């Protein structure tokens, strides 16, 4: 309520509407990340089971959680799977487990991540990939993590500005509505 008092009365409905849309985008992004971690964990667990890795389910869960770490999650997951196998006594299975993680990460990075982010934050898959690359180049790990939601929010705000200020659409609590002429 205090934050609403800062916004001029004429713009409160518009700002509240935009804040709700931004919240939905950010929520969709983080739900998508959790969904991807779940999928990676499941795929890795089945792969670990197939290659005979001891504690395959636990290792799969850990790899899925590590997938939440931007840029390095797959590397950490592969190293963890190899380490578990090496400690149990079979480095050969460790190499196979690392290859499972590599294969799952390729599927994740090339197909799953762009598709899920497109569905969640309404960005084209190429835009998702380009924003991650640009975010990593500009701000490192934090840029990789925050680039997709930042681009999605920027797209939302630019589209709203274009529709309402340039094209003259009427602002309603549920988004711009084209004026009747």
Model regions low in confidence, pLDDT < 50 over at least 5 residues: none
- Rg over CA atoms, rounded to whole Å, is 21 Å
Mean pLDDT, nearest integer? Answer: 88
The geometry reads as elongated
**How far is the first residue's CA from the last residue's CA?**
37 Å
User: Largest beta sheet: what is the strand line-up?
Assistant: 1-2
Helix-strand topology string: HHHHHHEE
Oligomerization: single chain
Which structural category fits the helices and strands?
Answer: mainly alpha
Number of strand elements: 2
Describe the sheet with the most strands: 2 strands, antiparallel
Query: Helix amount, in percent?
Result: over 70%
How much of the sequence is in beta strands? under 5%
Task: Pick out its properties.
single chain, 181 residues, two-stranded antiparallel sheet, 6 helices
Describe the structure.
There is one protein chain. The chain has 181 residues and is mainly alpha-helical. Helix content is 80%, strand content 3%. The protein contains 6 helices and 2 strands; from the N terminus they run ααααααββ. It has helices at 2-6, 12-51, 56-66, 73-88, 91-121, 125-166; strands at 170-172, 175-177. Strands 1-2 form a two-stranded antiparallel ribbon. Helix 2 (12-51) runs antiparallel to helix 3, helix 2 runs antiparallel to helix 6 and helix 4 packs antiparallel against helix 5 (91-121). The mean pLDDT is 88.
